[in-house]
Amino acid sequence: MDFEDGNGKIGNLIVLAFSFIVVAVVIVAFAATYRPYPPGPTFHLSPPPGPPNSPLNSSKSSRKALVPTLPTLDSICMQTDYVSTCRSSLGSVSNGKNLTVKEYLEVAINEAIQDVNEVKELSKQLAASTRTLSDRQALNDCDELLSLGLYELKAAFGVVSNNSELYKQSADVKNWLSAVLAYQEACRDGFKDKKIELTVDNALQNPKQKTSNALAIVDSHLKNPTSPGIISRSLISKDYPLWFSAMNRNLFEGYSNGILQSDAVVAADGSGQFKTIGEALNSYKLNTKGWYVIYVKAGVYNEHVFISRILTNVYMYGDGIDRTIISGSKHTMDGLPAYRTATVAVLGDGFVCKSMTIQNSATSDKETVALRVQADKAAIFKCKIEGSERSLYALAHRQFYRECIITGMKDIIYGDSTIIIQKSSIIVRKSGIPRKFKLVTAQGRTERTETTGFVLHDCTIVQEEEESGKTPTYLGRPGGRYARTIILQSYIGNGIDPEGWIIGFSSREKEIMFFAEFENHGPGADRKRAKLEGYQVITSKSEAVKFTPIHFIQGDLWLPQTGVPFGANLL
């Protein structure tokens, strides 16, 4: 054996043995110092590994900070407006344990569902025992409104329970919960017997507070996509939101050429398939794929049209304003609640109406609703809406009006919907009887976190020429303590009082209302009213843009498919 070869092999063995010893020492040292991360909530989608310099690959202490922790009951409830109600309703379920935001929200919505069911049962009992026809009708309306609210609550609960990426549908959940609050508030309307009104009002307090709390949880905890169980919003192919069903996609894709094939033709003279719109609606098939298109020929149709919740995607068009006319004459002097006076009432989502007049021809000084809309994603184009008080009852949900004429005398646009009226004329009619004042809007938002409000953009607001200067007209009043009305880049004519708005509540309530104007012009666009509490002039386009269709009603996701044009931005 060569001596040098032997020494080389022995040396290599010594080096190798020493290396194993060093590795073993390092492993033992690492095991002695390593501590696993504290247990946290499970991500629905694991975050991908970051690049070499990413915080995801940084030291233990910084990585610990990125692991989301479960919210406490207090951290959830302190974001609501009814903290004690929140603690009592959610605390009894959590039993001292911290839950995920999703779990807290499920409990909050389920609590509201239970309370609404109790009020529904109460309204039925009261209706069975009351002798007054008008109060019985108001209680029946209340029962109907609460049923609609239950439908919205259950839809919200279904999304919360079954969706691991809840943030993607937060706008819809907030819209549904806001509608529930609008229905609960409308339930209080129309009672003659003050005792019944007080009983119903007291019974509604719990469901209203719990619905408001659920909405507050969505509003405060779904803004941050890093909250436990929350993934940031995204769209699927063709920019459809995830809540679109296959039917919705087929429906909208079928309208790409702007031509609609009528499913029903209505003609008062008998030249169509039907003589009344009601008959055409009765032929609606529930498994209809796409629009159900009703063409209403020129003529006067003396009927009251009701489009129920299950009649979705109804597209109704006529031969033009003052050519196709739907006319009714119900009013509250008949003993009916305002809810029941509508000439046309729309509950089915996805409603589109074009080129016709809808009027309530009653001459009463009381509520005479022409059009009541509580359908989500409703679009009204080139229509005239005529009444005297509450001509347009925009009760709930997201709505868009374009190139319309809306006339009336008091609370012309009324309700608690999320609505944009664009490039339209609001005409304050002359009155047959003396009035102290007239009002264009009465927005009914009652809770801070509601997504609702009225926006008039690029509109014309004027009085009839004969009436100018006789009776002061105001742009609006609060219909709820958090009322929100914004008038953007519109012409405001003569006869609009320099004060602009009637804001008659306490100083505290004035602080939480939001009446605003931006770049309006015309003789009625008076800057003096900027001194009013509860009113402000918007000076920043970045603030004003929040009230455009894309941001306020998510219009970019549904308006293009209706064929109704819309201005996505400010002028």
UniProtKB/TrEMBL annotation:
One of its GO terms (molecular function) is pectinesterase activity. It comes from the Eukaryota. Residues 43-62 are annotated as: Disordered. The keyword Secreted applies. Acts in the modification of cell walls via demethylesterification of cell wall pectin. The chain crosses the membrane at residues 12-34. GO terms for biological process: cell wall modification; pectin catabolic process. This is Pectinesterase. In the C-terminal section; belongs to the pectinesterase family. Keywords: Aspartyl esterase, Cell wall, Cell wall biogenesis/degradation, Hydrolase, Membrane, Secreted, Transmembrane, Transmembrane helix. Pathway: Glycan metabolism; pectin degradation; 2-dehydro-3-deoxy-D-gluconate from pectin: step 1/5. Its EC number is 3.1.1.11. It is found in: Secreted, Cell wall. CDD domains: PMEI-like_3. It is an enzyme of class 3 (hydrolase). Residues 68-217 form the Pectinesterase inhibitor domain. Residues 43-54 have a biased composition (Pro residues).
